[in-house]
Specification:
about 65% helix; mainly alpha; about 0% strand; about 600 residues
């Protein structure tokens, strides 16, 4: 019978994987920097480029949507740089899961990994459902009518029909991924190339009809209401630009799939940072170009929020261009589907290899060098969700886990950058733990030149305090935005105090000595850039609706059940430590003749 002590629970939760140099892997190292860049572009530049610019410009930001995209791109680049450092520092499959396992501990790593599984499943399901809806629209909803007549579903919160097309496409893509990373990357490169060519076509063709005066027009208004703002470049004001940036941010989600290829990239420490930065840059230029063309070609209040490009070309009399755009949208959706499904089996493989979820899911095929069971089980789950849920129901769950993962990665960058330096660790010296010494160390009055165990612990606690303050600021800003804009003192004063404390915590972190470890790629402006990334991501999380949080909590309860019933006992870290501890303890117990029950 297994025994468990409450005092050992913290040790179990904080078990960490050690950072090791790159070594041989069971996965095939076959992906070049170009492959990774195409994967990042394909997974990010999906249907959003065909929808976001029109919907955000019409109802949220107006022509200033280009500024919204710029703000979102900067926020995404912050997160991307943090991912790039970890991709170079920890070249392993698993992305944020592995990063948090290395820096924070096993329990947090499981939560992040379980969250990523949900996000990749929901993301894949939403993309394939969108692909089905788009293709069906081209044929006057013939699939929908046939499926509804054959197997109508009359259950609330579910689709009115089972989408067999979406389910079949998901299985086909799962098979393509299972047959090899290189083969699936070739298909992704093709889809991404076609998608980029169509985006370039839209930008060039639309520029012939561009008219900057459309940035100055005013919408028709009645005496009672003016539904589309005041007109001009920023008809909805600064609030509209910021709100638009929050919406546009989700158009950049997907680049993190590059970070899951650490064991399949030929040179991960070089390729992953380059691919992340390059893919985000290309995606921003695409969004910036298409939003500029749309808002200069037509007034923002005349945009079609659902299908802006076909409507745009129809308005200018180029009906033939609608089909070119449709081809690009389908290829973009296929690339997004590959990009969304590609990292899912890798995260499952990483967690199964560590023993935190069922190990049969991580078994590698000797022929294809991919986790076959993990890929197909994830594909079946994705296909079922895509078949029984509507697109809008799936989209609502896409962002919360991704933003949480971004925040954890940024926090891990801070913790690792200020970890105990190797030179000081070898000396074995120990700083005094008096309150006076610790208080002086907050401003580094002790003049320490190298990071120590104490300074690394101080930074870890300060990062926790900083994150809590970010949550408080995010809640206040999300719930009382109108009061803040109007300058209500009962909101502005507490917010100012929270911001002051936030800056104070950040200053204390900045004053601590860093580890000085040489990295293949490092995030610039530490701690400010990762800290800003945490603040932005948490604020966007606080903007999500209540039902999204409820669904997320239900999923996490299921995951916690798996962890406590299976993962905590089968963890590779626990088995390795228990084996050594048992060997060391056997002789000691025999000498003491202790009758304390052994762990079985």
């Amino acid at each position: 019978m297994r025994t468990w002590k409450l005092r050992n629970m913290y040790k179990a939760f904080s078990r960490k994987k050690e950072i090791e140099p790159p070594q041989d892997t069971k996965l095939a190292r076959c992906l070049s920097t170009l492959d990774l860049t195409a994967l990042g572009i394909g997974s990010t530049l999906g249907v959003g480029v065909y929808v976001l610019a029109g919907s955000v410009s019409k109802a949220i930001a107006g022509p200033a949507v280009i500024i919204s995209f710029a703000i979102a791109a900067v926020a995404s680049m912050f997160a991307g740089l943090c991912y790039a450092e970890f991709g170079a520092r920890v070249p392993r499959a698993g992305s944020a899961y592995v990063y948090s396992y290395v820096t924070v501990g096993e329990f947090t790593a499981f939560l992040i990994g379980w969250t990523l599984i949900l996000e990749y499943v929901i993301g894949s399901a939403s993309v394939v459902r969108g692909l089905s809806t788009y293709v069906d629209a081209l044929f006057n909803n013939s699939m929908r009518n046939a499926f509804e007549s054959a197997a109508h579903i009359d259950i609330s919160h579910l689709s009115s029909y089972p989408d067999f097309f979406a389910f079949g496409v998901t299985l086909i893509f799962s098979a393509a991924l299972a047959f090899g990373a290189k083969e699936s990357s070739v298909a992704n490169n093709f889809f991404t190339l076609v998608n980029l060519l169509v985006v370039i076509f839209v930008i060039i063709a639309g520029s012939f009809k561009a008219d900057v005066t459309n940035w100055k027009t005013k919408p028709p208004c009645t005496e009672e209401s003016c539904d589309y703002g005041t007109g001009g470049f920023a008809p909805y004001g600064i609030v509209g630009i910021i709100t638009g940036a929050a919406t546009c941010f989700y158009g950049f989600i997907g680049f993190d799939c590059v970070a899951t290829t650490g064991e399949e990239a030929k040179d991960p420490q070089r390729s992953i940072p380059i691919a992340i930065v390059a893919s985000l840059t290309v995606v921003f230029l695409a969004y910036f170009g298409v939003s500029t063309v749309l808002t200069t070609g037509l007034p923002y209040y005349e945009q079609n929020p659902d299908a802006p490009f076909p409507y745009f070309f129809e308005r200018i009399g180029w009906d033939w261009a609608k089909w070119v755009v449709s081809i690009g949208a389908i290829c973009g959706l296929c690339a997004s589907l590959l990009g969304a499904m590609f990292p899912l089996p890798r995260v499952i493989y990483a967690m199964a290899s560590d023993g935190l979820i069922f190990q049969w899911m991580g078994k590698i095929s000797s022929r294809f060098h991919t986790p076959l069971m993990g890929t197909f089980s994830a594909g079946i789950l994705t296909g079922v969700l895509a078949a029984i849920f509507e697109l809008t129901q799936l989209v609502n769950m896409m962002s919360i886990g991704t933003l949480l993962a971004y925040s954890i990665v940024a926090a891990c960058v801070l913790i690792l950058r200020y970890e105990e330096s190797e030179a000081y660790e070898k000396k074995g010296d120990r700083d005094p733990r008096t309150l006076t010494f610790i208080a002086k160390q907050l401003i580094n009055a002790n003049k320490l030149n190298h990071s120590t165990k104490l300074t690394s612990q101080i930074v870890a606690y300060l990062v926790l305090v900083y994150t809590i303050l970010c949550v408080c600021i995010g809640i206040v800003a999300a719930m009382c935005s109108n009061d803040i804009v109007s300058g209500e003192l009962f909101v502005v004063i507490p917010l100012a105090v929270l911001i002051l404390l936030l800056l104070l915590a950040l200053t204390f972190i900045y004053l601590q000595p860093t580890s000085g470890k040489k990295l293949a790629f490092s995030v610039p402006l530490v701690p400010f850039l990762p800290a800003l990334s945490i603040l932005i991501n948490i604020y966007l999380m606080m903007m999500l609706d209540k039902m999204t949080w409820v669904r997320f909590l239900v999923w996490m309860v299921i995951g916690l059940g798996i962890y406590f019933c299976y993962g905590v006992w089968h963890s590779k870290m626990r088995r390795g430590k228990c084996t050594k501890a048992t060997d060391d303890a056997t002789n000691e117990e025999s000498r003491k003749n202790d009758d304390f029950p052994r762990v079985s």
